[in-house]
Amino acid sequence: MTGDERPDGRSGRHADLDTLADLHAGVLEGAEAARLREHVAGCRRCAEVLQALDAVQGQLRSLPAPAMPPAVAARLDATLADLRSDRPASTAPPVPPVPPVPPVPDPEDELVLARARRGRRLSRAIGAAAAAVVLLATGGAVASIVRGGGASTTASSGAGSAASAPVQPEEQSAPKAAGGGSFGNDSVGGAPGVAPQPVLPAYDQASLRAALPAIAAGNARLAAGMADPSRQAACAGSIPGATGSLRAVEHISYLGRPAYVFVYADGARLTGHVVTEACGTTPGQAATVLATIS
Amino acid sequence: MTAGERSDADLLRAHVAGDASAFEELVRRHRDRLWAVALRTTRHREEAADGLQDALISAYKAAGSFRGDSAVTTWLHRIVVNACLDRMRRRQSRATLQLPEDGPRELADTRDRVAEQDTRMVVEEALGQLPAEQRAAIVLVDVEGWSVAEAAAILGVPEGTIKSRCARGRARLAVMLGHLRNPGAPAAVAPRTGSGPGSASGSASGSGGEAR
């Protein structure tokens, strides 16, 4: 790419295409450029090449800017909201952005939408599982926990052992979690019958420790809000000190902050790694661990 | 500029100072251009969306390190383009993507498709055939209208490299878009490196050059 490798297109002989393109782009300088220009001035063939390069530039300049697909815009809004909720609380009141919801999705957005739908399905399923945990944990005091018409209260057989932990009803005092904070969540789509924002099960250190067996009995598939398996895997891989086998991942509220807990089993010992919601979104960056509980 | 209309730099400063909505406003201002660059750099919608997301997350977090020695838009573009190139590199190393080893060839049926309506698609398609680094330079300078100096700042390479990449890219595009097809004249222009596999009409196969 440097000048020294250039066989010259000196006057008298035709210049090759790349040399002419260099002249056209201002790569050539001084005597070399002058000599070539002199040749081009008297050479129709080479002059036409320069005209062709002009034509290429003209075509490139007239390309219209592609519009951002609504699904991508919605996803970015969700990402930004997520980042904001990950920030230390600021004095400004949170104003969740309202992403544009296209009534009829662009068919070209299928991939993005499919991803969002997948997340939605899972969040519904996991919402139900979380509700089951709540049922077990509170022995019937469901009404005080599951609110806002969010999670289904259908009991599922997913959660096994008893978790006697008190579940702190923090959701309502944590407005930062509102507004579609997670990736690939319900903010995209607009299909009828969309599940409302899932209520994140809330924990503190003690209650999460008590709930680890119940969570571990849940599932190790994609957690709600994790847009795709690769992101979840990237997050899991970026948690320092996580050992054993991954038993479950759950989207939770930890001390009022949206988070994920990755539950690992090492023999009979369960360890919960609580990481921030943005975990896995920045390649190569270690997870921000909020707590390690075992 | 009215009081309600903060500059990009103001918004970034406000974000660093803890203004919860400043960054989103900044992004809203520029996201169409950033999307265009991401999409044209990656040639892949999902990849562009992922790259743009990566970039905005890192811009959000690294805003405090912005020193103001370039425009905020230049800085944002730099982060977006690099995030996209980075994603492409990783994808290529994963998939050992087969890139065409020979020089550029005129796209199939170019001449028939150059009906007014199709021209843009053909140009976009041809752009997509360029090696990523050439394409990034061409997109910034020729499509988006950045100066060579600005493009150099965005891509983090010397200006001469930008010019050179643009020159290579335009030469390839001239071939692919059929501008050098005119028999008897420029078609006789010899490829410089002679690496062209003589299969394709042997005439205007342009530079072999690097495949990536």
SSE order of chain A in H/E notation? HHHHHEHHEEEE
Q: Work out the helix count of chain A.
A: 7
| Number of beta-strand segments of chain B | 0
Major sheet details of chain A: 5 strands, mixed
Which residue ranges of chain B are poorly predicted, with pLDDT under 50 across at least 5 consecutive positions? 96-102, 183-212
Structural class of chain B: mainly alpha
Largest interface: A-B, 60 and 66 residues
> Which range does the strand content of chain A fall in?
5-15%
N-to-C series of helices and strands of chain B: HHHHHHHHH
Morphology of chain B: elongated
What characteristic shape of chain A results from the CA principal axes?
elongated
How many structural domains are formed by the residues of chain B?
2
Count of discrete domains of chain A: 2
Number of helices of chain B: 9
Task: Provide a descriptive summary of the structure in words.
The complex is a heterodimer of chains A (294) and B (212). Chain A contains 7 helices and 5 strands; from the N terminus they run H-H-H-H-H-E-H-H-E-E-E-E. With 294 residues, chain A is an alpha+beta fold. Chain A has 2 domains: 3-61, no CATH class; 102-293, no CATH class. In chain A, a hairpin with a 2-residue loop joins strand 2 (245-254) and strand 3 (257-266). Chain A is elongated. The N and C termini of chain A lie far apart (58 Å). With 212 residues, chain B is mainly alpha-helical. In chain B, helix 7 (132-143) crosses helix 9 (159-176) and helix 8 packs across helix 9 (159-176). Chain B is elongated. Residues 96-102 and 183-212 of chain B have low confidence and may be disordered. Chains A and B meet through helix 1, helix 3 and helix 4 of A and helix 2, helix 3, helix 6, helix 7 and helix 9 of B.
